[in-house]
Structure prediction request, 156 residues.
Amino acid sequence: MHEMNVTEKARQMGIDLSPQEPGYLNMCIRTGQQLLTSGHVSDLRGVLGRDLTVEQGYRAARDCAEKILRSVHQTHGTLDGLRVVRVLGCVYSAPDFTDQHLVINGASDLFHELFGKDGDGYHARSALGFAALPTGAAVEVEAVFDIKETSSSPTS
Prediction:
């Protein structure tokens, strides 16, 4: 039986991997054996702990992670042969909001689902609260991926 690779699995989960127009910043850059992403913001706007619930924030963080995967796929040509190394999650937070970690689980859980919680998806992470985020986005997430030696990455 054919075992699904990460790229196939992402597509089956409905994650958009179609090419994007280049923007003002490089959304994912390769350096050595790593892929570093810019911060990807959620479509959802608002403040966690004031306008938005943790559940809404969780979905917004997952949205950010999906956008990251799209940028990584565009730069690297595949999601296969990667290891999620580090995730930084930024949450537009009310002053007394302390559940940033539960919000950013939306991104972490997606990476665990795709890459394996006990394998290549098991990453280091920071989840931080901010007084504001660009454009009023509820969540912004960035990530670092290792390109594993065993992967045969497509040539540019």
